[in-house]
Write a structure and sequence with these properties.
By secondary structure, the protein is mostly helical. It has 13 helices and no strands. The protein has a single domain (about 40-325), classed as Ribonucleotide Reductase, subunit A (Orthogonal Bundle), CATH 1.10.620. Bound molecules: manganese (II) ion (MN) and fe (iii) ion (FE).
Length: about 350
Amino acid sequence: MSDSCFHMSKERVTAANKRILNNDRAVDCNQLVPIKYKWAWNFYLDGCANHWMPTEVSMQRDIEQWKDPNKFTDAERHVVRRVLGFFATAETLVGNNLVLAVYRCVDNPECRQYLLRQAFEEAIHVHAFQYIVQSLSLDEGEMFNMYREVEAIYDKDNHAMSCTQSVLEMDPKSLKTKEGLQTFVKNLVGLYVITEGIFFYGGFVAILSFGRQNRIPGICEQIQYILRDESIHMNFGIELINAIKEENPEIWTTEFQKEIRDYILGAVVLETRYAEECLPNGILGLNTALIQQYIQYLADRRLERLHLNKQFDSENPFPWMSEVVDLKKEKNFFETRVTEYQTGGALEW
Ligand code: MN
Ligand code: FE
């Protein structure tokens, strides 16, 4: 029983005993209460309050518009395909990373409660893109292979996942070493800050620009829900990273800070390249320069949240995106239906 997660004891767990990682035998991983990390529990509650399902969003108008040969230019169809092609597999990559790498390493029960919720949300996002691809009768082979066939997408996925492999192979016991913790934190940055906090945003801004013209409203409504979920995912991830840093200050060396900063700045280059690939000539008031500026603006915000120096000082060229991010359920940016999910489905007895 020496490897067991818990042991017989009359000594009760207090919140003060809990740690974010490496709880070992002092505290087992099954006691949610007493809650120490209230922020993690609150993210769980927020996620549940935002529950939605893709198939509750009508795709009828999108289907009609997409079939109409005059509704979209070739450049516009290209953007939509590239964005959907990226997301079609990116959500699955995130889910896999979460369950196979993050969950194994984070043994604090409050965080795990949130991770279970997040994992379900990633499944909903995977479902959303499957539903969109199917509704528009897009070429499934093209969509789901795009991350292996289009270099700009391959490079993004590869950049974000480059440090996951070592975490997958890692023994959680190595989280007791400074190097092990650093490897893990870098994976968290790749997942929460880069993938969910930078790589999703070129696609979000491109799709939501159609929504501002009342086009593809069903896709836009789903993207809005996804964006709302993703901003909670990222905020949880940043809290988690900062909590690990706080409890293990020895990992946050000058060299490691530089490594993390370079990792994030590298993502800005790749996201800009992806924007060039998606919209080589600009559409709908969007062009690569504006998207680059937006990604730089976001990267600065992410760097600051990690207590790293910002890099660009770029202004937000799309202030309307902040309205979407801050979307409250009672007011919808696109004036379509917003479902109130607080209570979930009603039971009939
Ligand atoms: Mn997601
Ligand atoms: Fe996510």
